[in-house]
Amino acid sequence: MSRETIAILLRPATRIDIPEIVAVASTSTSPAEKEGFGAPSPDSPFHDPGRLEAAWQEPNVVRGEELLVAEWEGRVVGCTTIEDRGEALELINIDVLRELQGRGIGTRIVQYVEERARAEGKRAVTLGTSRNAQGVPWKSLPWWLHLGYQVTHEEENAWTRAIGPGVTEIRMRKELL
User: Fold this and answer.
1) Planar angle of CA 76, 80, 86, nearest 5 degrees
2) What is the pLDDT of residues 61-99, one digit of tens each?
3) Which domains does the chain have, with CATH numbers?
4) How far apart are CA 48 and CA 87, in angstroms?
5) How many angstroms separate the Cα of 46 from the Cα of each of 54, 62, 108?
6) Which residue, 86, 77, 61, is CA-closest to 69?
7) Residue 26 gets which letter from DSSP?
């Protein structure tokens, strides 16, 4: 398969998408990659279709976060959750099918979130990534920097404490001018 960029459709998720959302979220990273960085909880709704169905609120909200999907050739190949934080949209999570990573899907998802934030009059898009206890940042940090996001600070919080001692969240922000 070539590594060329592919065109995707971004849209609100629907209940019909649940099996594909779970497949994307469950396989976008390998267990080895997640080690020390905070894999989603095994009881996360995004790892079980029944739990995701139970957590679903119409039209496309899970745990208070809006769920969007990236579709290509009629199938879900990526998903993201976002949350309104007043002056900013928070990009909570982004997943792309492992075999299609590096084809521009994640970048297009981020661009969509940024375009939407601008249209809603938001000042910024914010997000968090992690740094493990050995001081190594999650693999996406250089990508976020390349997309124009800046590190604002690092912090320990409930999420990082659940991962383990010494893990920090790297908070990032992109101003929308």
Assistant:
1) 150
2) 999 999 999 999 999 999 999 999 999 999 999 999 999
3) 9-175 (3.40.630.30)
4) 33
5) 11, 9, 21
6) 77
7) H
Cβ within 8 Å of residue 59, ≥6 positions away: 12, 14
Q: What angle do CA 100, 104, 108 make, to 5 degrees?
A: 120
What lies within 8 Å, CB to CB, of 55 at 6+ separation is 45, 62, 63
Closest residue by Cα to residue 131 from 168, 92, 171, 93: 168
C-alpha neighbours within 13 Å on the C-beta side of residue 3: 3
Cite the beta strand spans of the chain per DSSP E. Answer: 9-12, 56-57, 61-62, 65-72, 75-84, 88-96, 124-131, 150-155, 168-175
Residue 1: which pLDDT band, with cuts at 50, 70 and 90?
very low
Q: Closest Cα partner for 10 from 83, 107, 129, 118? A: 107
Within 13 A of 121's CA, how many CA atoms are on the CB side?
1
∠ at Cα 16 (94, 57), nearest 5°? 70
